[in-house]
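Intended use. Records like the one below are meant for learning the mapping from a protein sequence to its folded structure. Do not use them to infer anything beyond what is encoded.
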Amino acid sequence: MDLSKFIPSLPFTDPVLIFFIVLTVILFAPLLLNKLRIPHIIGMILAGTIFGPHGLNFLPYDSSFKIFGNVGLLYLMFLAGLEMNLHDFRKVKNRGITFGIYSFSIPLIIGTISSYYLLNLDLTVAILLTSVFSSHTLVAYPIVSRYGVGRNPAVTITIAGTIIAVLGALIILAIVVGTQTGTIDQWFWIRLILSIVAYAAFILYTFPRIARWFFKKYNDSVSQYIFVLALVFLASALAKLAGLEPIIGAFFVGVVINRFIPSVSPLMNRIEFVGNALFIPYFLIGVGMLINPAIIFSGWKTLFVAIVMTIIALTTKWLAAWVTQRHFRLTTVDRTMIFGLSSGKAAATLATVLIGYELGLFDDNILNGAIVMILVTCTVSSFATERAAKVMATTLPGDDTEKDIAGVKDARILIPIANPDTLENLINYAILSKGSRRQLPIYALHVIDDNKTTQHSNAAGKQLLDHATKTASASDTRIMSISRYDMNITSGIIHTVKEHNISEIVLGLHHKSNIVDSFFGSKIESLLNTTNKMVSIAKCITPVNMTTRIIVAVPEKAEYESGFTRWIDRVANIGRQIGCRVIFYAHHDTITQIKAVIHHGHYNFRSEFEILDNWDDILTLTGVVLQDDLLIIVSARHTSLSYNSELEKLPLQLSRYFADNNIVVLYPEQFGAENELLSFTDPLASDVKRNYTRFMAIRDFFDKLSRRRRLWNHRRQRPK
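Structure written out for the chain above:
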């Protein structure tokens, strides 16, 4: 019996078998290398070398690896753009541009001299080879993402410098190729500059508007993901038409639309999952398949060229990182991170070498030396980046490692759910306010009234809780579902708050059932009178991640409430995750305290401050709040220090002037956690609070009267 008929020949051509081998490599390479403390990226590249055509020859380097490899490279640059915070970039843009100039010019000078004298190349060929040394690929960026230091200043500097270095290398490549093919004329530079300007203007103007419209109109997760990928590849294709490298287009679109994709959103979770699980590993395996270990021993000439190219590539990038460190007085860890990310060479390097090889400018020694250089630089890049990322993740302040001020990071958020139409927006709001690295779960509660229990209400409650779990799990957020029977809704919420030590409650604004119904409804008003915990009442017409600005109106003396730092923390989290401006309108003394909390907590978001001396001026915000803004009103309970009688008009003002806006009415934690609460079933409680409310109203009346008298006296004494 001839068994050769049943044994497939090498390399395998069955797509099912090829895909199985690739998935096996993606699965087991990290597991094995974790024990050896070797970066995962090295495992993917080595696996490609072992199973590729220059190793065991199991996998052919066919069109599938070329396609998925290009997709993986674009995906890598797109993720780098998504994680770049424009607020952070503005802080380090000068340092990033400076590093890009160093990273391009130092390899250009040293590489040209070394190639001309050591490798005996012509000046034109030597200059073309320096474009290989000047450019680099962010091969090690998945390590940065895995350790959660993507928004560290050193990483942002390197990413900004990458664009400058790649642009310079592409210009050199275009000039040399144009000179050899005779396509450079007097209009070359004008065409190049105009095409780049037109491309950048088109992306900046068109893509954000298209993304905003699509995300508002379509909420389906699959459609949103496909839409984002379509934008990435459209921008990459247009970049190629404009004379740029496609990776620049992928990075550019990531920067442009990242404000619509918060880092803790379900869409971001899907983007990272698919990229890290499939596309990026495919790219790394494809890079490994290009490496031929036998080249090292093919001859002294090839070995000498490979050693020279590798030394030049690593030395010049280290010098660029060192000069940048000395110039801007960065730390040693920053220098290691900058060198690690900028020292890797991959597909862009190979593409340049192949172009030179096809034009007859590079020989076999240069081609083989470039492949060896790719292997060594990717290895060094991975080890250096992982070493720096470990230190940054444990010792340096990153994007979510602010100081914990009085325990405000202990976010135990409870979401009572009853309306399926508002459920997703409430959960997304809670996730954004909670922060990305806080491990405590979100609590979803459905209360069943003992007096109205039916089989239908039980089934509806279970369905709501299942929907809440699914919505939260899409962004890798743990959720604890709670279903309970109680005498009424408010009682069920209060008992759950006590049993699970809840720190804050997020509610949806109810729909008025009749004209005599109150704005907040009897349940919310009863809850506010019963608990001292922070309560957020949200009405989200559009998804929160579509917010352009966050407008926060703060009453006078809000800094004296015990929950002052907690609500600032939640607002800061939302502003940082969305990447939008947060504008505080408050009294001068309150603004001073808000700035102090933001500074002490190391919050990293775009904050602005405007004076609101008198709460009567709250209606001036009608000319400030735009349709895509989120309006947060920091209110106060009747018996709190920051309460004034003008807050009684708030429901009417919101319903009349801000009906089409996303609104959050926020009641901070008040009275202090140690105070005993009066139960809403205690008849004395309503009398005490009613009398205290009357006292506060009388106090406010005399305060206004006193202010008017001082103003009248001031006008009388003013010289005519």
